Amino acid sequence: MSYGLIIVLMIILGIGLWHTKKYHRAVVNQVAHVWITKNAFEHTALGMAIVSPDCRFLKVNRAYGEITGYTRPELLKMAVKELTHPEDQEKDTPYLQEVFAGNIHSFTTVKRYIHKNGSTIWVRSTISAVRTERGNLKYFVAQIQDMTIAKNAEDELRKSRDNAEVLARTDYLTKTLNRRAFIERLQEELERTKRTQEGFAMILVDIDYFKKVNDQFGHLAGDYVLQKFADCLSNNVRPYDFIGRYGGEEFIICLPDTDVEQAALVAERMRESVEALEVDYLHAQIKVTGSFGVAVYDSHSSDTLDELIEKADGAMYVAKNHKNTVYQWVS
């Protein structure tokens, strides 16, 4: 065998050994990648699933079952829709349509699932599409994170803020609007009236001889009378009318889209209701009456809020001279 041929054979053998080692390393790396991927899929804290294009579970990890309460065999017989709260079942639809159209690759939503025990849980769901080399949809990779505790805390915080806002606008004793909140609403009504050219009416009422109630029965009895008096007024207004405690034993009522004759009828109905009121407090029966002043703001008015309230107050002052009556402001 010639020296040159030996050299060629050695080169070929070396190349073969090099390719063998390279292939071996590639196989080892591929096996390691598969093991790492499988291990990550199985042991991540996120719920993970492989989902078919028709949204049925093909594979799920341990966390997915822990979050939803179902076993793996149970989930593999289910569609994602079966887990989803009825009100949220169409939440993913527009995004899925975009995925099928090829416009987006993935999307995230926050929605409700029904746990196996029947309770509602909140999850952050991320759906990613996996496609073939030709671009056809192969399957979805779904990830869910349990957001129930965070969502409930968020809801409680929102409720607390809403309650705080209500309390800030409400008279603690009578549950009517406090003076500041009433004036704000009244300003809104004034602006609306300027736009629509429709008027509104205002009634200012004072409890007659209220000081005698406090003196004879005590301030706790007086507070109870204020509550019952406010109830009488509330029972005689429409849902979009609003009532405020103007101060002490005075209350103020706004009646949108109401002229002076209609407002006088409402005030008279209130007066009769108050006159018929019998407040049972301990072993006593307390009766009170009210004096009502009526004023209106119509499309021809140029009054400010203060001027309008002053007119209602003037009418109430005249009514208080007679007690238990209704008086309309006359320009």
From TrEMBL:
The UniProt entry, under InterPro entries, shows: Diguanylate_Cyclase (IPR050469), GGDEF_dom (IPR000160), Nucleotide_cyclase (IPR029787), PAC (IPR001610), PAS (IPR000014), PAS-assoc_C (IPR000700), PAS-like_dom_sf (IPR035965), PAS_fold_3 (IPR013655)
A Pfam family this protein belongs to?
A: GGDEF
Task: Tell me where in this chain the GGDEF domain is found.
Answer: 198-331
Looking up PROSITE patterns in the UniProt record yields: GGDEF (PS50887), PAC (PS50113), PAS (PS50112)
What terms describe the molecular function in GO for this protein?
diguanylate cyclase activity
Q: Which residues form the PAC domain?
A: 107-159
PAS domain ranges (all copies)? 38-103
Name of this chain's protein = Diguanylate cyclase
Which species is this UniProt entry from?
bioreactor metagenome
Q: What is the lineage of its organism?
A: unclassified sequences, metagenomes, ecological metagenomes
